[in-house]
Amino acid sequence: MPKATGSTNESFPVGFVLLGYSEFPQLEMLLFWIVIFLYTMIILSNVTIILLSYMNPQLYTPMYFFLSNLSFLDLCFTMTVVPQMLFNLWGPDKSITYSGCIIQLGMVLCVGATQGVMLVVMAFDRYVAICQPLRYTIIMHPQFCWKLVLMSWLSGLIESVTQTPIAFQLPFCAHHCLDDFLCQVPSLIRLTCGDTSPTEWQMTISALLFTILPVGLILTSYGYIAQTLGKIQSEEGRQKAIATCSSHLTVVFMFYGTVAMVYTDPKNQFASKHGKFVSFFFTVVTPLLNPLIYTLRNKEVKSVLQRQLRKGISIRKNKKLIF
User: Fold this and answer.
1) CA torsion through residues 21, 23, 25, 26, sign
2) Could you tell me which of 212, 248, 271, 302 has the C-alpha nearest to residue 119?
3) CA-CA-CA-CA torsion for 163, 164, 167, 169, nearest 10 degrees?
4) What angle do CA 169, 112, 179 make, to 5 degrees?
């Protein structure tokens, strides 16, 4: 990597260089094919969740409405980041334009913050379903669910609009090489030369608002849920509630765990050394695991999926018999 010769706030004529694992060309080629496979699976699995949620009346519930929105967010995130990642992994050109980096960062912040708030919404949905089942349909009516989704997107938009301009006011080093696969706040902070304490404080406060506060609300919801589960007499009902909640909690810990490792202190030794691996994980692994976790641990989704597959196979057989 070239050494920094100074700092600049000017718009770079060629933008930024996303180094990734450019020092290991053979590893990059292997990663290219791995990402191709994972990207395909991400699209197929999340589109399947969305289609099942909207096509089958059995899944016309708030939980699956929120789950389909989470799948849509995963699609938005991967489609924003992965094409550029594949382009950089395939050949020697590792560059991304300045405007491209701004757009990518803005989308990453918007979608990431929206996902965080959506996970809080899903925890609230589970709280109402388990702790106040008799009032569930009254509280979680369709209009209210849409308002919660819109609130999630608005939170993400506010985060993006406020943090993106701040990030690009940092005094970047002249070499403008990002040791990462994508444009994101921690890698931009590590690119800076000079005192960035005021800006870092603003970004840290924002990160805390979108990590500590949501996690606190989620854990509070599950505290009440745990108390209610202890009072449920039906073993089947308890196991069903535990299965649904454990799926959600797994996704919560994966999402906030990776965010905390990279965003809490971008310049610490772990983030500097392993940040791009964590970026790779939450870019192409987490969006695939989310639908798998919800489908593999959810009997309703599995039964609907199996029924749709059997229906598709029977239609094909009938067509063959006709022709």
Assistant:
1) negative
2) 248
3) -110
4) 55
Distance CA(128)–CA(124), nearest Å, equals 6
Q: What is the pLDDT of residue 104?
A: 92
End-to-end Cα, the chain, rounded Å: 63
**Four-CA torsion 283, 288, 289, 295, nearest 10 degrees:** 150
- Packing angle, helices 286-296 and 269-284, rounded to 10: 60
Q: Which of 31, 13, 181, 35 is nearest to 94 (CA)?
A: 181
Specify burial of residue 318 (Cβ count, 10 A radius: 0-12, 13-18, 19+).
exposed
Structure tokens at 166: 């701040």
- Counting as low any pLDDT under 70, the low residues of the chain are 1-14, 264-272, 296-300, 302, 306, 308-309, 311-323
Residue 178 and residue 172: Cα distance in Å, rounded? 10
Q: Are 286 and 78 in contact, with CB atoms under 8 Å apart?
A: no
Apex CA 48: angle with CA 46 and CA 49, to 5°? 65
Q: How many Å apart are CA 73 and CA 79, to the nearest integer? A: 10
The confidence score (pLDDT) of residue 65 equals 92
What is the model's pLDDT at position 11?
44
- Find out whether 186 and 263 touch, Cβ atoms under 8 Å: yes
Give the residue among 62, 60, 245 at the shortest CA–CA distance from 140: 62
